Amino acid sequence: MAPELRKGYGLKRKNTVLCAVICITVFCLMFLLNHYTPMHADDYDYSFSFAGAGRIHSLKDVYYSQVAHYFKQNGRISTLGLAQILLMLNQTVIDIVLSLFFVALGVLIAFHIEGDIKNISWIKLFYIYFLLLVVTPAFGQSYLWTNSASIYLAGVVMILIYCVPYRKVLYDHMNGGVTEKPLAQNIFLFLWMLLMGFLAGNSNENMSVGLITIVIAYLTIFLIFKVKLHAWMYGIGNIGGFLALILSPGNQRRLDSAGGINFLAIPKRFILVAALFFDNMGYFVIALVVIIAVIYLYFRKPRESILAFFKSLSPLGFVYFFGMLGSVFSMIVLPFFPSKAWSLAVALSIITLFSFGKEIERRMVQKNYKIILITTIAAMAVFLGVYSDAYFTIKSDNAWNNVRLSLIQEALENGDKSVKIPAIVDYNKWTPYEGSGELSWDSSAWPNKAIARYYGLDEVIREDNPNSY
């Protein structure tokens, strides 16, 4: 083997090992956070069958529960069905599965940036996990709380898996590869995309709109580049999943209880969602403007028009940019926008930034790897600092939850049917408690009733004094 080839092979092998080390490290770190994140709010409800048959114990129970759930609650079959499957398992198994989903999320984001898993660099993979940790608005709700993570973590993973064939076609076209597939492969892709598309399109309302926007953007680029379109590309499965979601009787009841869609309020909602966008995604706007400005000022061709300049940029960045906007601004029709629902927007914004950032990388004549390495080491130190804050916050709240569990266990051993437990009020973005379902002062209200039902009690009473808040 020639020295140059041997050196290239060695670098690739080193990169693969470092990518594996990062994935294993992230898995272990996420497992710790999941381990110390207790059951919360909807977890108690979804441990029971919505068909009124008691606790969930089997896949058959999940099936009948989801049928009833579709008519009573909402149409998120794929993600909340997954939640019910997880909640009938051992807690350690749940921790492992959710940690694997988070690792998969980072790898899939990296794949969509590069277009080929062999091109993923360990430095970019690290920065992806760094950004997921730092910029996700409600980390605990989106990635750690079982019920919510089944939607806002696993649902995003489903969407990115579904988009893999689109990304592969674009990668092959941009790199001179073969975009035409044998008939048998196209038939298989059609069937796969029907199934995976339904699961992804059924994940969540605003995430499904984001997915539809991504598919439209890909189809537009394929038409511009004269890539032959096949039946599997038209998003039939994800549109079906989206329709099953929004047209479910349970979803209509849920929407009605929230006040329905007020079309007259849409302009006001647009302003509110735009304000939330800049509040939650301000980092993205600033970073995107800086990247585009650097490319324009330092790497633009002489006398190149602005239109020609934007045409020269990576089409991939525009695909995920519009998908991100679709997932965010689809919320103008609803009267609420929970922090946990930003997870797809975060993932797509990371793909967008790295896709346009690659334009700088591609146009640079010389790279200073020493500066890149020093910056990465500094970022790792920041990562550990931020992670430490998350870890100790979650562990502290877990200690309070253990106090509650001990009080519940004591009540059960004494044969009591009611118990007083303290609320967990010291929380931030790392825990699932922020803005969602902590104990009510009314013991007959949710989630007190759900917790009481789970432990076989008649009443769970919040112990602290409402006048102290």
Characterization of this structure:
By secondary structure, the chain is mostly helical. It has 2 domains: 3-385, no CATH class; 393-468, no CATH class. Helix content is 69%, strand content 2%. It contains 20 helices and 2 strands. It has helices spanning 3-35, 42-45, 59-72, 77-87, 91-114, 122-135, 139-144, 146-152, 154-162, 164-174, 183-201, 205-224, 236-246, 249-257, 266-299, 306-312, 315-329, 343-363, 369-413, 448-455, and strands spanning 418-421, 459-462. The protein has a two-stranded parallel sheet. Helix 20 links the parallel strand 1 (418-421) and strand 2. Helix 1 (3-35) runs antiparallel to helix 5. The longest helix has 45 residues, at 369-413. The protein starts with a helix and ends in a 7-residue tail after the last strand. The model has no long low-confidence stretch (mean pLDDT 90).
Describe the secondary-structure layout:
Layout lengths: L2 H33 L6 H4 L13 H14 L4 H11 L3 H24 L7 H14 L3 H6 L1 H7 L1 H9 L1 H11 L8 H19 L3 H20 L11 H11 L2 H9 L8 H34 L6 H7 L2 H15 L13 H21 L5 H45 L4 E4 L26 H8 L3 E4 L7
Parallel strand pairs: 1-2
Secondary-structure element order, as H and E?
A: HHHHHHHHHHHHHHHHHHHEHE
Main sheet: strand order: 1-2
Rounded mean pLDDT is: 90
Which word captures the global form? globular
Largest sheet: 2 strands, parallel
By helix and strand content, what is the structural category? mainly alpha
* Number of separate domains: 2
What is the CA-CA span between the terminal residues? Answer: 72 Å
Task: Report the strand count.
Answer: 2
What is the CA-based Rg, rounded? 24 Å
Q: Flag low-confidence runs.
A: none
* Helix count, DSSP H or I runs of 4 or more residues: 20
Estimated share of beta-strand residues? under 5%
Percentage of residues assigned to helices: 55-70%
